[in-house]
Amino acid sequence: MLSLLKDLFVAAEYKRSAAALKHSLRRGRVGSPGTLVLMLYRLEPRSGGLRNTARIANALAAHLGKSLKLYIQTPSKIDAELIKEYGFKGEAVSELPAGADLYVTTSWIFSLSLPDALEELGGQWMHVIQDYDELFFPVSTKYYHAAKVKVGPESFIASGKWMKLPGKTAYLPFPVDTAIYHARPAAPVTRDIDVLFFHKPELPRRCALLCEQLAEVLLARQPDLRIAFYGSSLSKRLTSVGVQHLGALPSLEALADVYRRSRIGVSFNLTNPSLIPFEHMACGCLPVSPYVDIPEEFYLPGVHVDGTLNQLSAHILQELATTTLEQRAQALYREYSDQGYLCPKDRFDAAIVEAVEAL
Questions:
Q1: Distances (CA, A) of 217 to 54, 88, 193, 211
Q2: Residue 348 backbone class (left: φ over 0; alpha: ψ -120 to 50; beta: rest)
Q3: Which terminal residue of the chain has fewer beta carbons within 10 Å of its beta carbon, N or C?
Q4: What does the alpha-carbon distance between residue 293 and residue 308 come to, in Å, rounded to a whole number?
Q5: Where are the alpha helices (DSSP H) in 105-140?
Q6: The pLDDT value given to residue 32
């Protein structure tokens, strides 16, 4: 009986994976010269990656003098609302326009369908890459295909200067909205949270269970520690550890206020270095990002910390015993800014243009 159930489970997973990989582009027949087509697999709410994609697409289209069209492979009823929320300055189209000057993909899944389509559509292929996509999957067919997106496009736009990519690549700094993320509150703020965890069970790469385990170890060693979780309304229902649950903050301004109340910010970022640690720094909150020793280009001095749960907790408690956390966080922010790793949000469009012109 157990063997039969196992076989049924494996068969279902096999068919589910096969169905997910099979998709047909809805191709149009009308030519669209002078157009940049941004290809999105789907739009989702509350996505920092999509917000960043919108900034990149808008600036790229404006710089190249192209009209921007949005092709969404898996459309939904809330697409129009999300297009407005993220600030895409383009028109959504139901079919992939033919004869566009440039097709810009944002998901590895298009590497399975676009190369053949381009033989008929014409145009060039550029890929916007924000993560090593294969790291979202166990070693599997999806892992293979996600990794191979790096060898298809003629050029790349990389969000972050940490990536190692073949071919022509425009490397962008991380944009930090310094009007929101800063250590200059309008009124004095007490840092009443010792350790702030980004706890989001909806995103496996953020390692929510590891956050809970680390919080348990910290509280076992120092029971009076003030720990808070933020990022998801699920946290309170799923966890039993004795922490404050802030849930999903209602705005970026509210999020920055929490950062300014925190001494150390812990976030797991195992598919890319992430913008979160830099926003922590900007608010005077010292970032701690537990680090897995591969790929090596992920490593950021002063941000990543390697070790077991016990070693990580010892590191955090040692840091909390110092009195210079805020100053060190801000110094770290200045250091990465000076290296060109970061830029103010209002300089991001110019940074995109500079990077693209250098291709």
A1: 40, 43, 17, 10
A2: alpha
A3: N
A4: 12
A5: 114-121
A6: 79
Rg (CA), the chain: 22
Q: According to the model, what pLDDT value does residue 93 have?
A: 94
Q: Please return the burial class of 358, using the count of CB atoms within 10 Å of its CB with bins 0-12, 13-18 and 19+.
A: exposed
Query: How far apart are alpha carbons 117 and 203 in whole angstroms?
Result: 32
Residues 242-254 pLDDT 10s: 999 999 999 999 9
pLDDT of residue 294: 66
Q: Which amino acid is at 296?
A: E
DSSP string, 251-294: SHHHHHHHHHTEEEEE---SSS--SHHHHHHHTT-EEEEE--S-
Indicate the angle between helix axes 208-221 and 309-320, nearest 10 degrees: 60
Find all residues with CB under 8 Å of 82, minimum gap 6, and list them: 43, 44, 45, 50
Question: pLDDT tens across 340-350, in order?
Answer: 999 999 999 99
The two three-digit tokens of residue 359, written as one number: 């291709």
Nearest Cα to Cα of residue 93 among 45, 40, 48: 40
Instruction: At 158, list the tokens.
Output: 């990389």
Helix (H) or strand (E) holding 68: strand 67-72
DSSP state of 23: -
Average pLDDT over residues 125-142: 90
What lies within 8 Å, CB to CB, of 305 at 6+ separation is 288, 289, 290, 291, 312, 315
259 and 283 Cβ atoms separated by less than 8 Å? yes
Q: Give me the half-sphere count of Cα atoms (radius 13 Å) on the Cβ side of residue 97.
A: 25
309-337 mean pLDDT: 95
Q: Which of 101, 99, 77, 79 is nearest to 88 (CA)?
A: 79
The model carries a pTM of 0.86
| pLDDT tens column, 234-290 | 999 999 899 999 999 999 999 999 999 999 999 998 888 889 999 999 999 999 998
